[in-house]
Amino acid sequence: MSVVNRASLPNQLDPWKTSTVTVNRLRAHTSGVFSIDLSFEDPDVGKQFEFVPGQFNMLYVPGVGEAAISIAGTNVSGMLQHTIRTVGAVTTAIEKGGVGMSLGLRGPFGRGWPLEPVTNSTAKVSTSTKNDHPKNGDVIIVAGGIGLAPLRSMVEHIGSRRAEYGTVSIVVGARSPGDLLYQDEYEDWRSRKMKVICTVDRASLDWKGQIGVVTLLLERLEISHPSLTTFMTCGPEVMMRYAAKSAINRGIPEAQIYVTLERNMNCAIGLCGHCQLGPNFICKDGPVFRYNSVSALLRVQEL
Q1: Does 58 reside within a domain?
Q2: What are the percentages of helix, strand and coil residues in the chain, rounded to 5?
């Protein structure tokens, strides 16, 4: 099971093919949010499974239904990880089924995060800066709540190729300290020279971190090379809009700002129309978009 730099993958030639997977581990994060580790019933299928960070799978519970779930990455054993919020019949059934449960899996689907965000050859920067900067530039990742789940595999990707990137900053916001996802992984990210900054809306008595919305942190964040910076964000739509606005105000080009969108994805290949946003279908044209390609649509209420 591996990450690749392709948005169109071999097993998507038959988007209806369902593989059997087993829940090997279920870990609760916060109230109503949990992660599962999945192994493929057929080991050969598991070895051939490839995905781009930011893509999603359709998880199927027999007799209940199917749900689109972002791929959160892989664990040390190579098992596929998904982080899920319990919001409907399918996700509730997965949580109740727990370890040992068999699921159907279709995927991966959609367009993911840019694996080579900004290169020295494409960015408009001075010659001296180009020569001194890593080939993939700087990266700022901004996540709100469970929005860190679709970004986690991108963090893994960067961490495994850390020397290819410049400064990497990860800004995580949540309602309370207990709502911060993957807290046990932050120190590992920091050990790989990625800056991790957390902020909460409501602090507990023992909280010693930041308090307030993520945009306040972005206004104070050091951005040495805006033209060489890629900005990726996922979270509530209003948070992403303000985060993107903050990035633009700091000099990051709109074409280097990426957001991931969420709508009711039923078929995953753009046939059913449930996830349509203007001319786009989130399942096949996204879920990751350049901000300047969807910013006008996000300003239209009830679209």
Answers
A1: yes
A2: 30, 30, 40
Mean pLDDT of the chain: 89
Distance CA 162, CA 166 (A): 8
CB-count exposure of residue 119 (10 Å: 0-12, 13-18, 19+): middle
Which amino acid, residue 33?
Answer: V
CATH number at residue 97: 2.40.30.10
Q: Identify whether 295 is part of a domain.
A: no
202 lies in which domain range?
127-260
Distance CA 46, CA 2 (A): 9
**Tokens matching residue 108:** 């991966």
Helices (H), 161-201: 186-191
As for how many domains the chain has, the answer is 2
pTM: 0.90
Tokens of 168: 């990497």
Cα separation, 184 vs 174, in Å, equals 15
The enclosing domain of 222 has a CATH number of: 3.40.50.80
Q: What is the mean pLDDT of residues 247-251?
A: 96
Q: Which tokens in the block code for residue 259?
A: 């957001």
On whether both 229 and 178 belong to a single domain, the answer is: yes
> Tens of pLDDT along 10-27?
445 688 999 999 999 999
Residue 299 is assigned to a structural domain of this protein: no
* Residues listed for the chain: 303
By CB atoms closer than 10 A (0-12, 13-18, 19+), residue 192 is middle
Q: Residue 231: in which H helix or E strand, if any?
A: strand 229-234
In a domain, 157, yes or no: yes
Structure confidence at residue 122 (pLDDT): 55
- Asked if residues 33 and 78 have their Cβ atoms less than 8 Å apart, the reply is no
**pLDDT reported for residue 119:** 59
Please report the pLDDT score of residue 118 as a whole number.
66
Element (H, E) at 249: helix 237-249
Q: Is the pLDDT of residue 181 over 70?
A: yes
